[in-house]
Amino acid sequence: MVKDRTHIWVGLGAASIVIIGAIAIAKLKSKPKPKVDLTKFDSPDIQGSGRCMDKEFIKMLQKLAKVTKLPIFDMINSGARSSFWNTKVGGVSNSSHKIPKCQAADIKAPTRAIRNKIVVAAKLVGFKRIGVGRTFVHLDNDSSKKQYVAWGYPSGTKPPINPFV
To answer: Measured between alpha carbons, how far is 115 from 150 in angstroms, rounded to an integer?
Structure first.
């Protein structure tokens, strides 16, 4: 007597389709984040110095770009700085920009609307240190410094927008 095993083959076929579909969906969801061009963070006097940028800081900037829908990585004014360059631009001696710390960036913000959008979104993605200038926003994730602070420029002045109050 020959037994009908069609139901087994149908079940195996259905299970295969489900498994292949799940794998395909997982691959689509886990598409790699675009590579960041770290040369945009180079200190002007040291080619390749942007490679020192803190990985968690870069991830936070990627989130910021996604939230704001702004080309944040094309708006970098200043990233890593040599001691020489930090002095040249008037940076503080313990700047989070300085090599090897590399945990800060200044982002161009030519209008109040762009500046405010960046500041509000920066707080949302987890930045706890925000400097607000007329034409740029400073962001850093330096945990060795005071947290949940915003400041204006020149340093010590009240920021035009403070997301922490």
So the answer is: 13
Task: Match 């963070």 to its residue by tokens.
Answer: 41
pTM: 0.79
Please write the tens of the pLDDT for every residue from 82-138.
999 999 999 999 999 999 999 999 999 999 999 999 999 999 999 999 999 999 999
Q: What is the CATH number of the domain that holds 47?
A: 3.30.1380.10
Helix ranges (H only) for 35-91 are 55-68, 83-88
Which helix (H) or strand (E) is 7 found in, with range? helix 6-29
Q: Is the peptide bond before 154 cis (omega within 30 degrees of 0)?
A: yes
93: in domain? yes
Q: Total domain count for the chain?
A: 1
Q: What is the residue range of 62's domain? A: 38-152
Q: Helix (H, G, I), strand (E, B), or coil: what is residue 77?
A: strand
Compute the distance between CA of residue 163 and CA of residue 5 in angstroms, rounded to an integer. 67
Report whether the peptide linkage leading into residue 100 is cis, meaning its omega lies within 30 degrees of zero. Answer: yes
Cα–Cα distance for residue pair 33/45, rounded to 1 Å: 29
63, amino acid identity: K
Tokens of 121: 């979104």
